[in-house]
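Components:
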Amino acid sequence: MTVAGHAALCRGLVEPVGLVTERAEFASAGLAPLESLVFGGHEVRGGPLREMADGVLRDCGMPGLATAVGDALDEYDARIAPGVVRGGGRQIEAMGTGRLEVGSDAEAAAIVRADLDAFKKRCKVDRLVVVNVASTEPPAVRHPSWSDLDTLRVAIRGPEVVLPPSALYAYAAFEGGDAYVNFTPSVGSRIPALGQLAEERGAIHAGADGKTGETLVKSVLAELFARRQLRVLSWFGQNILGNEDGRVLEDPENKATKVRSKDHLLAKILGYPPESKVGIDYVRSLGEWKVAWDHIHFEGFLGQRMSMQFTWKGCDSVLAAPLVLDLVRLVDLAQRRGERGVAVALAPFFKDPMGTCEQRLVHQDETLVEWLSAPTSS
Amino acid sequence: MTVAGHAALCRGLVEPVGLVTERAEFASAGLAPLESLVFGGHEVRGGPLREMADGVLRDCGMPGLATAVGDALDEYDARIAPGVVRGGGRQIEAMGTGRLEVGSDAEAAAIVRADLDAFKKRCKVDRLVVVNVASTEPPAVRHPSWSDLDTLRVAIRGPEVVLPPSALYAYAAFEGGDAYVNFTPSVGSRIPALGQLAEERGAIHAGADGKTGETLVKSVLAELFARRQLRVLSWFGQNILGNEDGRVLEDPENKATKVRSKDHLLAKILGYPPESKVGIDYVRSLGEWKVAWDHIHFEGFLGQRMSMQFTWKGCDSVLAAPLVLDLVRLVDLAQRRGERGVAVALAPFFKDPMGTCEQRLVHQDETLVEWLSAPTSS
Amino acid sequence: MTVAGHAALCRGLVEPVGLVTERAEFASAGLAPLESLVFGGHEVRGGPLREMADGVLRDCGMPGLATAVGDALDEYDARIAPGVVRGGGRQIEAMGTGRLEVGSDAEAAAIVRADLDAFKKRCKVDRLVVVNVASTEPPAVRHPSWSDLDTLRVAIRGPEVVLPPSALYAYAAFEGGDAYVNFTPSVGSRIPALGQLAEERGAIHAGADGKTGETLVKSVLAELFARRQLRVLSWFGQNILGNEDGRVLEDPENKATKVRSKDHLLAKILGYPPESKVGIDYVRSLGEWKVAWDHIHFEGFLGQRMSMQFTWKGCDSVLAAPLVLDLVRLVDLAQRRGERGVAVALAPFFKDPMGTCEQRLVHQDETLVEWLSAPTSS
Amino acid sequence: MTVAGHAALCRGLVEPVGLVTERAEFASAGLAPLESLVFGGHEVRGGPLREMADGVLRDCGMPGLATAVGDALDEYDARIAPGVVRGGGRQIEAMGTGRLEVGSDAEAAAIVRADLDAFKKRCKVDRLVVVNVASTEPPAVRHPSWSDLDTLRVAIRGPEVVLPPSALYAYAAFEGGDAYVNFTPSVGSRIPALGQLAEERGAIHAGADGKTGETLVKSVLAELFARRQLRVLSWFGQNILGNEDGRVLEDPENKATKVRSKDHLLAKILGYPPESKVGIDYVRSLGEWKVAWDHIHFEGFLGQRMSMQFTWKGCDSVLAAPLVLDLVRLVDLAQRRGERGVAVALAPFFKDPMGTCEQRLVHQDETLVEWLSAPTSS
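Structure:
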């Protein structure tokens, strides 16, 4: 979707709706033009991209688009390498075309690193941003070696799975000084040893878990209750979705990671933890669509109990794709500014932002805009 | 409701939920303690307050409260003077117990001013804030004398209705240097000549139209679409409510004022005017409850059309009452700080804030908090 | 949409979803095969059908369909005659391409009758059903001549507009013994003199106002409250829609007819009239989509007040089109069975069924199924 | 709630809203007057009834009622015996005040039977109906002895738990020829051996699982889709509730029974099984209130996908209580008519009706009304 959308944008087939970096405030920040971006990737599912994109785009009600940018999809296809799945949980491992057979994480990382270098050379790109948009992994079990880079380097040479795929790609990216963005709730680069590696190599990273739907709404709406001193008694959210991500989340082990990521921002914004629950269920018939229903029960003056409900009906990939373009452009800018480590200013894009406790969209976004215009302070 | 709630708060019967000025940030601003406030008023409807309050509180599911604070209501009752209704539109004029028979606006203003002075003397209060919480008037027709204070002073001596009630009270308040807050969409003090009068007498004023429900939600939610560059195609809002205000709004002439006040903030926040409509209908069975349904149709990446809906179910008077307490305390602080004219910092309380174009709740609120801690800059 | 859908069905491009007459109970009733139907029509808007259909189908998310059945649409185009608009209200009259210039209703009826005869001859069809699917007319003012056929025949020879277009087509159809179905809330054949004419010529008629969305839901849902003795206090419905019909309904004179048709069935089903309102607003961005929000406030045991809300999001033309096919097949069957006058059994298709007070969908449908299997009793 | 409501009804404090048996059609059926009913019960929770009722009634917004009928509640209190909990699952067993210590099911049944006889004698009632309104038990594991009465009689003399509480009460009721109604999804009398016992002793039984909220809506709404040949692709329902029943349902073993009972009627009504899920979550802040959100995704003509959503906000006990009164009166009538075994005509009251596959509320209700007026055919 990101690749198809990028091609459609570059050809002027669509307007840049949904791209944060196309807002007026971003115009003079020196971001790389969209046309200068080149895409490659790792994929664990089989089949030509044009077909997969066509399915998704049809579901989203845009059947003609895959054809209109078919050549761009085919070109991209040629730049895809098979992905690593070991440690990704039974759902992801079962997808099959991934490379499970390597003997150690170090070997797997070396293969990925070689893929990245080959891509950079072949496409003649100067800088590279690895973006994790894979399905959610089960909650990672903290490995003792995670706390220190040297220990980690030893551990990954053994046969044990030390780094789940999301972290392995971060390792591979950092090794070459490249940036890594974690658009999923999987652990990614949130491992101290990987943080050390990023600093050491001058690599940028950001994450985690793209904020695209229900949580996005929460991160503005909760302010209303906070600023009006209305006491949230309970906030119940239920998501139903029908795409591949939804299917993977059917597995309780993957769902656990996701629900954890969605459920902590209320306490941060409100200043107290209300009763809250987030449910996610797979409803196949919805295809690419996601519907969220939230019921907010709150107390006002004199103890009066009132309620608000909302439903959000969005096409998940359509909401996420432009943010990936935004993130790549912003991380690239940070790279060119000589920053290293966590790109804290990218918080508005994430459910679980690294390097900050700020969960309020408006504040996150204002901070991002300030960062844009104040290049020297990272 | 405000009076009953104030009494309940002072007696410790309820917690200060729903009061903005009870948030931690407001603790050291030097606001008057709630216990120091004394209430009086003008009323156009008949009947003892205890009975009216009991009806409203029962509707809101708090049947015991009117009894618990009955003595405070009775005391307040003794401080009520009959209200002026001439120029309030056929709905308000029909309420009957108001004073229509005065010969000129000047006479009416003098009567109100005398009531205010009597109240101050009797209750031994130093400062006074007149808050307009009457039903919405029809859209006021601009009178030629409004543009200049001297001209206005002449005009109101004639038999013509020059100032609708909402403006007449502002005039009377300012004449004695007292403050005026317009909690309704009626014209109130938004008349140049009244602005001159306030400046001349060192009076504070603020308004207009308390932001309590659907518009409050809009003023946070619209930011989501603005900051994510999601294009709002249409925003349709429908309100149903069953109280006296709803009944008055049944009349198209009063409804026009209200709908105008609710419908302009989207363009301000989004930066472009989306297709939008706001409906208000009276549904008697709802009593004090108001239900709003909003349907937001928006476009994302690749032209994909998506939607969000929300319903807000609140008790209107319960949402408004604590804000009246907040406004009185904040205006009083401004008075003590020696400010005069429009209290711009009070924007977060209003649908149509005077003195600023800022419609975003979060920004309005941050400005208020800054004002609190920076007393010398008004 | 009906013509395009019919072609798509006959070519096996789509399944017969949404067609009542394709339910198992209807299989052995001797209905005409879909393939045997031929379509013609009168149209007041300009432009080739293929283009108009393409616009509608795109809006509904079916962009390929107009092309797939383009030849059928072109053929149909050749069978379209310009429509009569005089008396249709300012919105419809403004559409322009209609024939306004005839000197009398009798002349207009003769032209329409000639069109129908030409169509029957040219397409070699034995029986014909005229279906009114035009935009809603303003409420018709009862003309004195309506009560008697002979008087009507005299009146329509004068220059006055006696019959609005919806009734004029019924007149023309009946004159030739052909059937007439009123899918709109306009007056159509609900004029005593037209009833006499239908009986006299052995013509069938049915109506009025296709039951496709919010009212359809009401006609099943209200039974819940009736059968459980739950007291409906208020039922508020709000419809927003973006197509041509919606635009015409913007005009208060056309809206009045529609709202009247939607708002009377609750009293019939519940046995008492609850407080109720139905709003219709035009929201252009919705295109062919209609969204209805209903709020039902009801009282249960011990006076407890509870509520139900629903939203219905449907594509109006997609919901209506198959019902037109159903109605044509069923009226045709009634014709072959030798029935005449109002086809009472067709009540389930209409918001305001002729010949019966029954508003409950389930009962209406059971009656229809009984009628199917009991051919001799009309 | 039932007892309090009954007292309030008998004293004329409230109108008989929500009682099916107070509809006009039931007036001449010879039902026992409400005043003639006397209540007793078994309870596994401690505390005086007046207090428990007060809590529930406050939650429902009826704080005065418990006081108004306090004496009736106190009288009832004196007729409460401690309940049996063994075999009710860990949640119910933990409630503590129940009698766990009996040596065998036979002993437990004998104690219950003795309680029933004592109640009948003391209150001088001729006929008795045991109604199970306890919290939902975990799914019962079928015991080999269930298929035959003689085997069952032997089995329950051993130390093993053979009958969960819901079935044990049925056994005890039938032993004395008394009726049993299962208002819960627990197994109750749906055990072949118990069916034999009821027939043998001439006892009536009915069940299972009171149809009060979301499922009630489904049982009318699904007809719309069936009769219009609209294809339901998925029907997702989510319930949130805050009372004791909700807390018990938090336990997955109890929830399994409930979800099973709610999820099978769609296939029956539609004629095919759509994708469907029903979720139940405990949200403490809701107290006695239950909110259900259902999302129905359906396909219409030309494959167009549309959707309907509803939210139902009801007070569970307020919806259930009058149905218990209805059931007692109707079962009593069946007893007096000399019927025995399953009272099939009572299907409209249940999610999972015994003795019939009919799930459509309208048909169930029509059958009940027919049964009323045709006493001799059971």
